[in-house]
Fold:
Amino acid sequence: MNPNCIFCRIIEGQSPNDTVYEDDRVIAFLDINPAAPIHILIVPREHISSINQVQDDQEELIGHLFTTAKHLAEVNNIAESGYRLIINTGPDAHQAVFHIHLHLLGGHQMRYPMG
Ligand code: 5GP
Ligand code: ZN
Structure:
């Protein structure tokens, strides 16, 4: 728990949010400023600032973010229509919250190419 971290405060129940899934390792809630009809953030309960700080023994936890995304894509009926999974890391990628989160975006045709 990092008291200065908005996602840690959400995890601790100290900040309102629209939780759509939670288990012992992750929580998922709606993005406050959605960029697509479905925009869910999947967040490890453990405070890890970015992918740059991930340790070898946290590989399984990072993998769990992705299997949770797969589950939520099925629940939201976008598994077949398609979706985008994004982890922004560092200034060039506009990372704004320094607690790892996997964006699940879907529900409309997205722009391509990326970047
Ligand atoms: P980043 O650029 O760090 O990958 O994205 C951070 C995301 O968190 C943004 O899409 C932003 O809308 C979302 N966000 C920031 N603060 C809050 C909050 O307090 N609650 C929720 N639900 N989402 C937030
Ligand atoms: Zn945090």
About this structure: The helical segments are 6-11, 59-75. The first strand starts at residue 19 and ends at 22. Residues 6-98 form a domain with the HIT family, subunit A fold (CATH 3.30.428.10). Residues 2, 5, 7-8, 47, 99 surround zinc ion (ligand 2) (CB under 6 Å).
